[in-house]
Amino acid sequence: MANLSSIITPTNLVTLTGTATLTNKTLTAPTIASANLTTALTLAGAAGTNGQVLTSAGSGLPSWTTLASPPASALTLLSTVTASNSSTVNVETTFSSTYDAYLLVVSNIVVSDDNAHLLGRFKLSGAYVTTSTYYGKLMNLVSTTGTFNADNTNAASSFYFGTGLGADTSDIAGFNVNIFNPSSTTKQKRVVFTGVASGSSGVGAGQTTTFFGSGSNSGTGAMTGLRFFLSAGTIVSGTFRLYGIANS
Asked: What's the confidence (pLDDT) of residue 70?
């Protein structure tokens, strides 16, 4: 009979609570309650590379897989400006040659005075232009009518983004502005916008007004800012988010 003391020794006996090193052993359906790996995890001889993840094949061992790069976003948030009883709101961060076009999303605009007109100006060649060199058109369609009301800008010191805004607690406005080639120093600057507002007086009193329009300046200097202000009162609140639109 074999001498059991030569087969089972403290160095090769695995107990329920003991610690042991297993070499070239096959474990059938093991359960690992609390893994503490001190060396690289390998599968079928492969350890994977930095950034890879394990992917199930449905059966058998999983494999190491390199994640695909996420698609580039079409819009990149560049800056956010928040109005707070502001006489002017300036969106200046960041216009550059990185993008050919920009999108400005203006939301939750509340004004202090009834029948206020929201106006705009460009910052060209480092300064906001206040001379009578703006041109534009604003079209308003009131919810209770089928007729557009037009406001024209012809050689004025600013252009219209909205007219007849209301100051009631329930009144609010929002719109999107598209800005094209602001960094050009040979082309006039133009913006196009669409939005919706409610008014307590003036155009669309007590109704919802859909509006769209455009504004331009005859100057050709690089545009680095867009200013919003009212014909009367202040912009009580509102958020202005500027996005760069990917060129490709």
From this structure: 66
For residue 100, which amino acid is it? D
Burial of 105 (0-12, 13-18, 19+ CB in 10 A): middle
Q: Which of 169, 173, 183 is CA-nearest to residue 220?
A: 183
CA 65, 67, 73 angle in degrees (round to 5)? 170
Distances (CA, A) of 104 to 134, 185, 190, 193, 226: 20, 21, 13, 9, 10
38 or 114, higher pLDDT: 114
Let me know if 100 is exposed, middle or buried by CB neighbors in 10 A (0-12, 13-18, 19+): middle
Give the pLDDT of residue 35: 62
pLDDT tens, position by position, 9-38: 555 566 666 677 777 777 677 666 666 666
Cis check for the bond before 94: say yes or no (omega within 30 of 0). yes
Cα–Cα distance for residue pair 80/83, rounded to 1 Å: 10
What's phi and psi for 4, nearest 5 deg? Answer: -60, -30
188: buried, middle or exposed (CB in 10 Å: 19+, 13-18, 0-12)? middle
Q: What angle do CA 161, 104, 247 make, to 5 degrees?
A: 130
φ, ψ (nearest 5 deg) of residue 153: -115, 120
Summarised one tens digit per residue, pLDDT across range 134-189 is 999 999 888 877 778 899 999 999 999 998 888 887 889 999 999 999 999 999 99
Q: CA 52, CA 25: separation in Å to the nearest integer? A: 28
| Cα(109)–Cα(9) distance, integer angstroms | 82
pLDDT single digits (tens) 47-60: 778 778 878 877 77
